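Researcher: Watch the backbone:
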Amino acid sequence: MVRTADSQVGNRDHVTDNKRQSGGRKTTQLRRARTKASPVKETSVQRIVQQNVQEQLTERGEFSPIEMLISIGRLLYADYEDWRRGKVKTLDKLFINLSVVKSLLQEAAAYSSEIGLQCKTIEWTPWIDRSVDPLKISQYSDLCELLSCRYVPLRHQLQLDLFYDNGVVSDESRVLAAFVDGSLDDVERSIADLYRTNPSHPDMGLYEHLQRYMKHCRTRRCEANNLHKEFQVLSDKIVPLAHAALKSRARDFLSPHWGRLIECCKPLPYRDRPQEVSLSRLYWEMADWQQVIEACKEELSEQVTLEVLVRAALAFDRLSRLGSSYQAWFLICWLYPEMFVELIVEQPDVKLQALWVAFCDVDVGEDEEGIPIEGLPVSHFPAFCLIYQPLLSIQVPEILFPGIHFQLECESARQLYYVAHQLCQIDGVTNSDMARDHAERSIELRKTLSNLSPILMKLYLETHFS
C-alpha cells in the first residue's frame, strides 16, 4: 500500500460549536473562494498575447515572440534548448499544434504594431559555435519571418543604438553571451576584458560568483552523497544570482546546471534520493513538462504527496492535456480537501475555476430553523463537474490514476464520482437498442446517486431532463 504524506497539509482549527456563527469553517472557505474566483470566460488568443506582450515589456523592455511560446507552453524549453544546441534542424516538429502557434504569432505581430513597437530582425545562432551559419527556424517562410524578430519601443530603440556604441556595454554583452553559451573559457576571457574596461562595474561581483560556480561544476562531479548540497547551492544561491546578473537570460544559463543534477539523480532508486531533491522538481526547473509528468508518475507510484500531485496537474495543463490535469486536481480534492479549496482558485484553467464557482453557488436549502445548510462537501466536487458538464466524462476516465493505490477517509466520494461518470456515459448513448439495454443500469445508478447525494441527484435531473 502506498503511503500518503499527510504531513504536508497543515491541520486547522474547526469552528463548529455554533451553527449560527458562520455555518462552519468549510462554508467560510467556500465563500472566500467564491469571492476570489469569479466566473471567467475562456481566455481568447488576443488576451493571452496582449498579457504576454505587456509582461515582457515590463520585465525585459522588449517583446520576443519565441519567449511567448515558451512561457505559455506552446514550445517546451527543453526542445528550444536542443534546437539552440543544434540537436534538431528546425522547430516545426517541436511546436505543440502548429496552426495555433501561427495564430498566436500573427496576433502578436499585429498587436505589437498596433501599440507602436518596432520590429527588429534577428538571427538565431547556435549556442555551441556562434561562428557557424545561423539556425534554421522552420521550413515555412511565414513562420521564419514571425520568429526572426523582436519588438522594441521606438524611443527605447533609439536609446539602445547610442547605448551600444559604448565599449563597456559591448564588453558586457559578450559576458552575458558567454554565460548563455556555457563556455567557461569564454566567460573568464570576457570578464577579464570587462574588468580592464570598467573594474567598478556594478555586476562584476555577480559575474565572478557565477564564474566560480561554473568552474566548480567543471572540476567536481555531482555524486549521490553530495546531491542534496549541490541542489541547495544551485537553488538557494546560484538561481538568485543568475536572475540578478543575467535577467531574462538566466534560464539559458541555469538549464545545463539543472541537467547536471538530473544526470546524478535519475539513476538513483526513489528511496535513495534526498527528500528535497525530487526528479520532477528538477525537470520542472528545466521546463521540460513531459519529463515532469513521467517523473511525477514514478514518484506517485512510490508515495502520494500534495506537492507532486500539484506539479503533475500544472505540467499536464502546460501541455494542454486538460483531462489528465483534471484527474490530478480531482485526486487532490479527495486527499487534501482543505488545501484544494486554497489551490483551486490559483490554478490556471479558467474552465475549472468556473466549475468551482458554480459548485460553491449550489443552493442546498435551509434547516428547520431557517439557517442555510452548509454547501456540498468539497470531496463531491469531481462528481459535480461530471453532472454539471457531462462531456467531461469523455476527457476524464472513471478510474483516476488506475496504477496508483490510495486510501480515502471518505470512500463514498470516489463511489459518487464513479456513479456520476457511469450515468454520463449511459446518457451519451444514442443508439436506441443500446439505450434500451442500459435502461435498467441507468435506473440502478440513479438510485445509488440519490442515496449518496440527494442534492447532486436533483442537479442531475435538472441538468439532463429540464
